[in-house]
Amino acid sequence: MNLITWHFERLPDWLGALPEITLLVFAAAVILLDLFVARKGVLAVVSIIGLVVSALFSVSFWDFNRSFFNNMLAADPFAVFFKLLFLGIALLIILASTDYVSKFKRFQGEYYALILISTLGMMLMAAAADLITLFVALELTSVSMYILVSFLKDKKSTESSLKYLLLGATASAVLLTAWRWSSALPAPRS
Predict the structure, then answer these.
(1) Distance CA 144, CA 14 (A)
(2) DSSP label of 130
(3) Which of 8, 16, 27, 130 has its CA 20 to 30 A from that of 66?
(4) Furthest-apart CA atoms within the chain: distance in Å
(5) How many domains, the chain?
């Protein structure tokens, strides 16, 4: 065992979630900056910086194979690949939606923060190592998406958001019921 391997095995748990923590901090920073900054183009830049910093922290876990928080989150190449994929897609969405967001006089910070929080949920899904973590990450992503669907606040977007919410709530209820019934089954005999 060399010094680097020994160092990575003794990492505190919160360092294993550093890419996700970074994204959460930048989402909060975008919301706070929206209150004080007059030029709203800065919010897109801060969001992009948050995605890049989170990607750099994710890449640092590439040759890593360990779980954190009592085996709730995994840090392995599979999780890192999907974290980088989700971060790259979020970066493209922010770059592609700058004209769309410029239509809003208000709520630009909330738009970027919701994209970052949705990406955070996807990253947690990629790193989830148990069902509860997977479900919480799925709900975090879903709630952010429900809000983003209704973001225009017109009749069509409100209707589609309500339909999406009802479909998602039904799917979550069926999923939880299936997990409950599958855990109540007796163990197979050998």
Answers:
(1) 24
(2) S
(3) 27
(4) 68
(5) 1
Q: How far apart are CA 82 and CA 47, in angstroms?
A: 19
**Residues with Cβ within 8 Å of residue 116, at least 6 apart in sequence:** 23, 24, 26, 27, 30, 47, 50, 51, 90
Domain containing 83 equals: 3-130
pLDDT digits (tens, 9 = 90+) for 114-172: 999 999 999 999 988 888 888 889 999 998 988 888 887 788 878 888 888 888 888 88
d(CA 59, CA 1): 22
Q: What is the pLDDT of residues 72-94, one digit of tens each?
A: 888 888 889 999 999 999 999 99
The answer as to whether 77 is a domain residue is yes
Residue 153 falls inside a structural domain: no
- For 7-25, the pLDDT digits (tens) are 556 667 777 788 899 999 9
In single-letter form, the type of residue at position 117 comes to I
Residue with tokens 């989170």: 54
Domain assignment of residue 17, yes or no: yes
Structure tokens at 119: 């990406």
CA dihedral for 41, 150, 123, 121, sign (positive or negative): positive
Task: Give 94's contacts (C-beta < 8 A, 6+ positions apart).
Answer: 44, 47, 48, 51, 112, 115
Please give the helix or strand (H or E) that residue 67 lies within, else none.
Answer: strand 66-68
